[in-house]
Amino acid sequence: MMSFGHILFLSILLFEYGNSGDILRSGDRWVSVKGGTLVSSKGTFEAGFFRAAGTESWFLGIWYKNVAERTYVWVGNREEEPLHSSNGTLEVVDDQLVIRDNSKPVWFATRRRESSSSSTTTAVAQLLENGNLVLKDVNNDNPEDFFWQSFDEPTDTILPEMKLVWNYQNWYLTSWRAFDDPRPGNFFFGFITPQYPVLAIWYNDFLLYRSGPWNGYKFIGAPPLFRLEWKNQHISYLLINTTTTSPDYTRVQLDNDGSVRHYTWNQRVKKWDQQWSLSPDQCELHRTCYGNAYCRVGSSSPACECIPGFEFSSMNTAVMPNLTRPSPSQNNGLGDCTCTAYSMSISLETDNWSCITWSGDLLDLRSYSDEGLDLYVRTAGKKKSKTGLIVGTCVCILVVLALLALFCYWRRKKTREIERERATTAASSIEIMMPRERENLIEADQLSAPMDFAMIVNATDNFSQEIGHGGFGYVYKGVLASGEEIAVKKLSQLSKQGLDEFRTEVRSISRLRHLNIVRLYGWSVYKEEKLLIYEYLVNGSLERHLFGGGELNWETRFHIIKGVAQGLAYIEEGGYDLILHRDLKPDNILLDRYMTPKISDFGLARMCARSEKEVFTQHTAGTHGYVSPESLLHGIFSSASDVFSFGVIVLEIVNGKMNRSFSSSIGYLLGYAWNKYNEGNWSEIIDEKIRQDCVESWQVLRCIEVGLLCSQYFARDRPKISLVVAQLQQETIEIQKPKRPAFYPIDHEGKSGIPSSSNFKGESSTSTSCTVNGYTFSEIDAR
């Protein structure tokens, strides 16, 4: 019969080393190397110490209790100092789960979070029915408040309800070192990149395998066993996808050979059935092919093939190329020159399709026939043979040389043409200047400069905008590069104005600088073409406004009369030489935007020294109706001849009708005006359009008297133009009574209004004259 002491000793041994349950409290030491274990509430899992055959150490582990074939799903102290003593125990000490070796701690499960239930807690260790060993408050079963749990430190196995977490760094499965050695091995399994995840297997630091991306319900290339859950942009979970029909015992294990296998327990035959194995084939191994090539599984062995084509090629691929991805793209990467490829993939965050791009070499491409995502690749192009490259290069070089030779030939030819044009222009420039001017360069510099013919062609848009024409040729509008508008007078080859007249106009008008003289910008001679470039006057000629239906009030008419008188006084009395215009008429008086008159068209002008009072020509020049009697009958021109033309113009401005086309019983406008003035009815001479507005004005009567005085038959009876300017400016200056004007048909005594030639010659015989050979006669019709 046993004594009380023996019974007490056996009770203590049973309490310390033979007890079992699912909870280990502070002070309990019965879970030990000597045999005590924790058993889950329904007896599915058991936790305790075991000794592997391949090592002399003891390990804390969790295994299936009712499976005859011992199957470990978690090992605790596999990375710490080995436990060799037979006195090892598992205890709860100061809210920590500790393995002691003869009272020396060799492994800790440290409290990681505080309980939300109360400030005072009592920590216990408990083995849950799902195989999770937890450290928790004895009164709190909320998983969110567990201080520590074995599911947060996975070893080589994933159980249902267990999560592999991505939280800045991965939680991996780590294989056993050998089938009988639970210490950490060389293989790792997990998933990478939380937003576009893929499964991966590593051998140490070398990436051995990558699955296809998550397509919303499975990883491409892997069975639909796993599911993913998204928590936020930094945390996501990988779980075993279980259903109500799943076997009671199921697990995914990373074996020590690097294969990931899915097992379920077959209760009928009492063994584990392998459902699938993630053993990478040759195409699934990392870097099986070089960059920018894809692996295709053949009948005998896998083959690496280069990506064909020059454009984006659509490939049905299961494996995304690179591990590092930029942010999702909004334009499929087509606008990014560094983009190598792009694809559309399901985002775990939004559960929507989004675009991802890659740059650099593409690795781990694999072609699938029944699943995968379209990968669009920008390729470098097809490889061409060296022969074609050489031939193409030679042809390109020959073409370039031929084009270069043609360009040089064209450039040389163009240069010669330009030189010939410049030589022609230079020769014409010398021809334009008179011998006296060629000798006196200072005086020659006063001439307007010759202008480039091509520049004038561009300015006039190849002479496309005609603004006037006459017997001399045509006038075109143009715009210089500076923006200044010009009028280009292009002399016709059929014009009676030859080189002499052209030269005369250049030489005469180039010297004139006056408000009432049209400005000559320059001239150009190219081959048979002769151009005069004037300032552009927007209101055209006086003739168009007087006889073309224009409306001119008296103030404007008087302003024009005074301006023409001032311009005529300048050209005849204000310069070094005497300039005789010889063709003064309304058509040769142009108006600017302010209706300021400017005398133009000096093609028939003559230049004489001040000592030469008259110019004698063998032929008449000018326009009928404006030519003085001495010029018409005897070819004698003087400053008084231009005064006569001015007098006719003044009367035309007052009356509004043209002298030579005036219809009256007493002849031309001159006779009509003289008759009305002599009768005292001078107001009837005024244009009916303005008669009521200016009948009281002294200016009108003064202009009529000036017009009649300037158009006197004899040159000696006509006033100096400078006196006319003064008489038009001031009413107080006396003016003599005019006599009968020239071309008055019949006087009161029945005699002709044209004196005999003997009288005319007698007047001019005392004058000094010079002879000028040749002539030009203006057209009778208005231009």
Automatic annotation (TrEMBL):
Keyword Thylakoid: no
Transmembrane residue ranges: 388-410
Membrane topology: Single-pass type I membrane protein
Family recorded in the similarity comment: In the C-terminal section; belongs to the protein kinase superfamily. Ser/Thr protein kinase family. In the N-terminal section; belongs to the leguminous lectin family.
Keyword tags: ATP-binding, Cell membrane, Disulfide bond, Glycoprotein, Kinase, Lectin, Membrane, Nucleotide-binding, Receptor, Self-incompatibility, Serine/threonine-protein kinase, Signal, Transferase, Transmembrane, Transmembrane helix
GO BP annotations listed: defense response to oomycetes; immune response; rejection of self pollen; signal transduction
Entry binding sites for ATP: 490
SUPFAM superfamilies tied to this protein: alpha-D-mannose-specific plant lectins, Protein kinase-like (PK-like)
Domain (Bulb-type lectin): residue spans on this chain: 29-148
Name this polypeptide is given: Receptor-like serine/threonine-protein kinase
EC number(s) given by UniProt: 2.7.11.1
Catalytic activity: L-seryl-[protein] + ATP = O-phospho-L-seryl-[protein] + ADP + H(+); L-threonyl-[protein] + ATP = O-phospho-L-threonyl-[protein] + ADP + H(+)
Main location: membrane
Coiled-coil residue windows: none
Compartments, record wording: Cell membrane
Protein origin, superkingdom: Eukaryota
GO MF: ATP binding; carbohydrate binding; protein serine kinase activity; protein serine/threonine kinase activity
Region span, Disordered: 749-769
Gene3D superfamilies: Bulb-type lectin domain, Phosphorylase Kinase, domain 1, Transferase(Phosphotransferase) domain 1
Bias (Polar residues) ranges: 754-769
GO cellular component entries: plasma membrane
Signal peptide start and end residues: 1-20
Domain Protein kinase: 461-751
InterPro entries in the record: Bulb-type_lectin_dom, Bulb-type_lectin_dom_sf, Kinase-like_dom_sf, Pan_app, Prot_kinase_dom, Protein_kinase_ATP_BS, S_locus_glycoprot_dom, Ser-Thr/Tyr_kinase_cat_dom
